[in-house]
């Protein structure tokens, strides 16, 4: 990094600090202004307006009365986005970033306020705790298979753990599916678009009796994909050593690639045992046999890659020259010797029992089982066999949670609970090194990780006077993890342990220091525990206005690097990550409900931050997951909802974030002061919806929405800048009482943007995973 870049980066951080403070002051001023202006327009009390209520804190309450940020996405908002997966979280929620890993949309990564995961392996703990119908999801691979027939999604920002579920440092995402209705009915929702896109979703309510209700819901999605696969192209019949090494297997051009093929179903049954007891059971099944995207090598990044790999790729090789000449900068045309595909099946079953005792005391018990069997392959993004992966993993979990809540008096309440998680992952990967080269080998890692996690939590709130509430929460968490397995070098030539000195300075060591006759065996364990807490207060200077402050701590459990293990050091446990978070905010809602505004400032201080970085392992530089540094994040968020005229609704939000890595413990000292991954300086979103009646039977609803994500990085090295991008969508719908027909366009401006990054390993070039180009289609919704 140049001196200018370093100075410019510090200047930018100072500018953001000023902007953060100024934004909070400005929006706090807005809440005062609107409270004065709209107080004169109506005598309607806020209690009589359609106030948003949530159960994010395991009790029904107005979003206005929560001392923190809770973003709520309704069914209508999710339908308007039309993504059918977790991408909708980023489109509607400032400060939330959606990204993908090698497994594509089947394994999304959610980052909240710059706190997330840069780890694509399935055995880690997520910074953002995902709960579906109250059940914690031990891996994000379970998420999109359940993302249908949704009633609402609640996004809680900041450390969580004193009210339910598993502890988290970034926040929590609660996905709540629709409940059965007492009347027979249902809906069918069909989406048809370009690239052969089809998505159908529907549900039917089957009331067996007044006390026993059933709902059956299902979803199917398919597409042709928006990539054009050109086969091995110049890599046809390629061999690194034609005289001694068998050429690689050729792959014919496939045409369209990256298509979806997924289906899910859910059965929900509710039994009202009595007026005081409700039993809810859910069974969810899903499968995904989609083609996975292939990150493209473009003409722009080939030259740098070719020069850095000349020690094993001869730049004068005719095949390499032909490949370089064939490259363009179209991100959707790809050459590959692999056809990456996904084959996954998941099963989920859960039982919830709610009981009301006399005296306003309630009890809730949740029991859940989830399993995910998933096989997939990934490409090295080249038409030559350099470094391809084969993955297979079986994941299962069993959770039990119990909560008891009640009131001390009319102005004080309490909650106590316990949470237990047992999960197991049986993981296997084959790394195919230089599959037609001198060091050709198949490095096979197999491991079993088992985890027992326990949480005991309590919280209480007290309102001594009408204008002030004090809340406090406490949690004890413990995690026991075992990690056993081996790495086998299936080397057909018996060549291994290529010395690090062979490789140019700065390159990741690609030698396999494992004797094929003697596998690397590892058997490690981790035992960790932590006490976390939260204190918050709410001050109500006027009925429409709230001020709040929160101080909390968060804990992310330790674990293990779940990638290919090449040395005993790489199998050592990772310590837990902790954070102390401070937040102050302001909320306002006008008496007539035409305006609501929120603003907040937050500051996070991390210790033992977990990340993937280049470290010296067995005398060589390699990418490994570890506790690499401390870190700080500060920022501000703004949110505004307006209904200036009948039928017009405007919803907007913005987030400003400044992050910095401190006390870096890795090899590269220049990482000190870098931004955290997935922490753009600025992100914003806006949606404008206008509905107007045509006659007594029909109305027209038009929506245009946009979201923008500022430039950011996806690794702590900050050598993978993702340029800022903005996505605009439009939708026009003709509606009646029981049906709707809509035309839609997503990514209206055909923005070129990235949703994933795969850094160089020394063998493969830097490549980015692209977001969808412009898509358009028609939607039909029928209620019955």
From TrEMBL:
Organism in which the protein naturally occurs: Paraglaciecola arctica BSs20135
Keyword terms, alphabetized: Cell outer membrane, Ion transport, Iron, Iron transport, Membrane, Signal, TonB box, Transmembrane, Transmembrane beta strand, Transport
Sequence similarity: Belongs to the TonB-dependent receptor family.
One of the protein's GO biological processes: iron ion transport
One GO term describing the cellular component: cell outer membrane
PANTHER family assigned: FERRICHROME IRON RECEPTOR-RELATED, TONB-DEPENDENT OUTER MEMBRANE RECEPTOR
Domain TonB-dependent receptor-like beta-barrel: 322-748
Lipid bilayer topology: Multi-pass membrane protein
Cross-referenced Pfam families: Plug, TonB_dep_Rec_b-barrel
InterPro entries membership: Beta-barrel_TonB (IPR000531), Beta-barrel_TonB_sf (IPR036942), Plug_dom (IPR012910), TonB-dep_rcpt-like (IPR039426)
Protein's UniProt name: TonB-dependent receptor
Domain annotation TonB-dependent receptor plug: ranges: 63-172
Subcellular location, record wording: Cell outer membrane
Residues making up the signal peptide according to the UniProt record: 1-39
Gene3D superfamilies the UniProt entry points to: TonB-dependent receptor, beta-barrel domain
